[in-house]
Amino acid sequence: MPRSVNHAASKAKRKKVLKMAKGYWGARGNVYTIAKTAVEKGLQHAYRDRKLKKREYRSLWIIRINAAARLNGTTYSRLISALNKKGITINRKLLASMAVENPQAFSDIVKFAIN
Hints:
Elements: H1 7-20, H2 32-71, H3 76-86, H4 92-101, H5 103-114
Helix pairs in contact: 1-2, 2-4, 4-5
């Protein structure tokens, strides 16, 4: 009995990888074996960086809150500590956007928390 090979599935698999490698430089974009490793590596970076993005945004929010807090005569750590003692639960994303977009409301929160 002749060997059965599913050409449709294997061609679809190769086509999928080459589609994902579209725009890659040189052979990475059109040679299947090279494109396969490049796509795998790219997917690994994408998976890792989805986690890193969360860390980077949190650190950005902390930097913005600290800068705005220092304009109001305190520091980030003192402000967060005072907010926790007062029982105010505002997340850092909201505090950072408030510090940038509405400095007056941020300074009101700082005054309420510190006093």
